Amino acid sequence: MTGQSTPRTGEDATRSYYDSADVDAFYAAVWGGEDIHTGIYTRPGEPVADASRRTVDRVGDRLADRLGPGRSVLDLGSGYGGTARRLAERFGCRVVALNLSAAQNERHRAANAARGLDGLVEVVTGSFHDVPFPDGHFDAVCSLEALCHSSDRPRALSEAVRVLKPQGALAFTDIMAAEDAPAELLRPAVSRLGVDALATVSFYRTQLAALGLTGVGFEDHSDQLVSHYVRLTDETAARAAELRGRISDAYLGHLQENLPVWADAARRGRLRWGVLHGSRP
User: Fold this and answer.
1) pLDDT at 9 exceeding the cut of 70
2) How far apart are CA 121 and CA 137, in angstroms?
3) Which residue, among 171, 193, 272, has the nearest Cα to 226 in the 3D structure?
4) Quick check: 91 and 64 in contact, CB under 8 A?
5) pLDDT-derived band of residue 16, with 50, 70 and 90 as boundaries?
6) From CA 59, how far away is CA 7, in angstroms rounded?
7) What is the pLDDT of residues 151-166, one digit of tens each?
8) Are strands 138-144 and 72-76 parallel, antiparallel or unpaired?
9) In sequence order, which residues have a C-beta less than 8 Å from that of residue 149 and are 6 or more positions away?
10) Is the separation of the CB atoms in 73 and 141 below 8 Å?
11) Per-residue pLDDT tens digits for 19-56
């Protein structure tokens, strides 16, 4: 299931969205500006940033056998760089962080320098539809909630596998549609992503197997979606007065309308989320 628009159109929509000052300020205020991923929650009211970091560590666990000093990992759609910094700190590996948004990349580089990680993390402006590295370059590849923005997911997956070394590992999370969820019912939620539809777990598993990966699997954390979107909805409502001083009324209104739509889709079982993974032979 891919969108019907061209990759260029999807990339323009993604870049425009994440380069927005409103979006930048919202993620900094509500997510903490480090990671902007779906979280794995262990208690009610847990900070979104803590739950999001737990997701990064879960993906890192899937790559741990391939990472360490002298090893390299590619983070596709790296956002503000929380994943890249965490992997570099945890494993001592080199990380290439590939991302479309110049605004995010600027903040990412500054945070790396402040943490003394600019020697391990390289931030590259570019597209996961055309990864600017040779075949077999990385020991591991990861991505967290980035492929939902892709309008050519087979191409993005092909690029991810192409740059993996033999025995290299791939792990990624994504917001996906349930197998039986009609695309038109999810369209109000996914419209801001710049695509027509979400992928499904079966789509990703089939694509990864066709690309020659072995041990393809899915670690299902779909039960976290309701917690995550309810948490975002509640946090946005509780901090509305503060947010009005940082983002436009129009964007705040959009959030207050759109986040409950995602929460409702999750409650109705129309969404899936978790860690997909596999390895090159």
Assistant:
1) no
2) 16
3) 272
4) yes
5) low
6) 26
7) 899 999 999 999 999 9
8) parallel
9) 10, 13, 14, 77, 193, 194, 195
10) yes
11) 678 887 888 788 777 888 999 999 988 999 999 999 99
- The mean pLDDT of 189-207, rounded to a whole number, is 91
207-235: pLDDT as tens digits:
999 999 999 999 999 999 999 999 999 99
Burial of 213 (0-12, 13-18, 19+ CB in 10 A): buried
Q: Give the contacts of 80 (CB within 8 A, at least 6 positions apart).
A: 27, 33, 34, 35, 36, 104, 107, 108, 111
As a whole number of angstroms, the distance between CA 219 and CA 227 comes to 17
Place of tokens 């596709």: 76
Report field, pTM of the whole predicted structure over 0.85: yes
Across all residues in the chain, what is the average pLDDT?
92
Three-state SS string across the chain, please?
CCCCCCHHHHHHHHHHHHCCHHHHHHHHHHHCCCCCCCCCCCCCCCCHHHHHHHHHHHHHHHHHHHCCCCCEEEEECCCCCHHHHHHHHHHCCEEEEEECCHHHHHHHHHHHHHCCCCCCEEEEECCCCCCCCCCCCEEEEEEECCHHHCCCHHHHHHHHHHCEEEEEEEEEEEEEECCCCCHHHHHHHHHHHCCCCCCCHHHHHHHHHHCCCEEEEEEECCCHHHHHHHHHHHHHHHCHHHHHCCCCHHHHHHHHHHHHHHHHHHHCCCEEEEEEEEECC
